[in-house]
């Protein structure tokens, strides 16, 4: 699965320096709540269940993964798909497993050794159909401009269009995976690499109250010129998911939660409704959501000129020194990388750098091109 659910379960109250100390209110909310991040789609290899435990209000650090659970999904025909733990707290089905549009699916979770409720189940979720993505496109966006010099900085806004004439899908969610090519400023063996990044924001849209079931020019992703994503070539793969109204309400509230940072009277995590409940004890709270969605995808490449694109490999970062004369490489020091080795003809010299990332692009990405990467796009 290419996606990553962002389900905040903590509110960190800002701590002010001086005589004002951090205030963490006393609450009766359970400090160890099961958090479910789940998705079943109609595409094989895209289903995933992630289980963690929440942290108390004012806590810090990453969420605690939940291992050793029995996780499986059943459909309305009595079929069962078992999910195997592949990483701590992450459970995947067999590679051939996929859902079918129109069918209902229920998630089952058993937590061994749990003191307070150990069996959990989701509501039956129907997989609704999803239309194809009509188009993904981009526009140059002026960031800075000078009267005498003209445009001095540009970013890139990526948009999406889709529609559904059948009216079966009126609630949409999108995730994307970015991949971009970058190059080092020196001609070294590993000078060309690729790096990928999954979306970590919530992109949703409802057409339920619109005259037409169309999504037009939805702003999916903005790329500023403060990174090198657009410097050589960039690609984005967008996954479009169908939702029902209840799931849309969940993501809408979660989106509001992530936008209202740190306020004492903002929405608290338990107010975001989950479709997973504890079978043993109805008072046990559960966070997160089990999504059942048909999906479709579309990819575009961007190879264009954007004004003022930054590079992480500036002269201040990738400092190069010239060392004259021969001698063993080891004499240059332990943390020195040779960019140029010129022994003949005399005089011999070496160009070196003390930043490994300026010598080897694999410290940041991979030097193996992605299978979808083509030179003619």
Quick one: how many beta strands?
22
Q: Beta fraction of the residues? A: 35-45%
Distance between the termini: 25 Å
Residue stretches low in confidence (pLDDT < 50, at least 5 long) are 1-28, 262-266
Q: How many distinct helices?
A: 1
* Tertiary shape: globular
Reading the helices and strands in chain order gives EEEEEEEEEEEEEEEEHEEEEEE
Helical content stands at: under 10%
**Structural class by helix and strand composition:** mainly beta
Walk me through this protein's architecture.
There is one protein chain. 4% of the residues lie in helices and 41% in strands. By secondary structure, the protein is mainly β. The strands form 4 sheets. Strands 1, 2, 3, 4, 5, 6, 7, 8, 9, 17 and 18 form an 11-stranded mixed β-sheet that branches. Strands 12, 13, 14, 16 and 19 form a 5-stranded antiparallel β-sheet that branches. β10 (133-146) and β11 (150-163) form a beta hairpin. The model is unreliable at 1-28 and 262-266 (pLDDT under 50).
How would the blueprint of this fold be written?
Elements lengths: L33 E8 L6 E6 L10 E2 L4 E6 L4 E8 L2 E3 L11 E7 L8 E4 L2 E2 L6 E14 L3 E14 L7 E13 L8 E7 L4 E4 L7 E10 L9 E10 L2 H15 L16 E3 L7 E8 L1 E8 L17 E5 L12 E6 L6 E5 L24
């Amino acid at each position: 699965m290419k996606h990553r659910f962002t389900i905040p379960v903590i509110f960190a109250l800002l701590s002010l320096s001086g005589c004002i100390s951090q205030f963490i209110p006393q609450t009766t909310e359970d400090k160890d709540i099961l958090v479910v991040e789940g998705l079943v789609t109609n595409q094989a290899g895209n289903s995933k269940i992630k289980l963690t435990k929440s942290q108390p209000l004012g806590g810090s650090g990453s969420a605690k993964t939940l291992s050793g659970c029995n996780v499986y999904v059943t459909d309305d025909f009595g079929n069962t798909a078992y999910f195997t733990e592949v990483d701590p707290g992450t459970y995947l089905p067999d590679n051939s497993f996929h859902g079918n549009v129109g069918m209902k699916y229920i998630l089952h979770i058993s937590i061994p050794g749990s003191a307070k409720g150990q069996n959990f189940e989701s509501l039956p979720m129907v997989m609704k159909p999803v239309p194809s993505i009509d188009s993904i496109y981009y526009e140059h966006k002026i960031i800075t401009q000078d009267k005498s010099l003209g445009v001095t900085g540009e970013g890139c806004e990526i948009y999406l269009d889709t529609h559904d004439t059948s009216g079966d899908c009126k609630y949409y969610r999108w995730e994307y995976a970015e991949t971009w090519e970058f190059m080092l400023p020196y001609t070294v063996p590993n000078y060309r690499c690729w790096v990928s990044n999954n979306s970590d924001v919530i992109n949703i849209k409802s057409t339920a109250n619109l005259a037409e079931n169309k999504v037009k020019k939805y702003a999916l992703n903005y790329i500023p010129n403060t990174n090198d994503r657009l410097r050589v070539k960039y690609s984005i793969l967008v996954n479009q998911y169908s939702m029902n109204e209840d799931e849309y309400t969940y993501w809408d509230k979660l989106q509001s939660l992530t936008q209202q940072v740190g306020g004492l009277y903002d929405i608290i995590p338990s107010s975001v409704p989950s479709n997973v409940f504890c079978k043993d004890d109805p008072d046990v709270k559960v966070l997160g959501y089990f999504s059942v969605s048909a999906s479709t995808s579309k990819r575009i490449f961007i190879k264009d000129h954007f004004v003022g694109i930054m590079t992480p490999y500036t002269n201040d970062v990738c400092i190069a020194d010239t060392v004259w004369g021969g001698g063993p490489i080891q004499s240059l020091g332990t943390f020195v990388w040779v960019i140029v080795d010129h022994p003949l003809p005399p005089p011999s010299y070496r160009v070196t750098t003390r930043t490994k990332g300026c010598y080897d692009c694999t410290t940041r990405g991979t030097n193996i091109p992605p299978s979808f990467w083509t030179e003619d796009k």
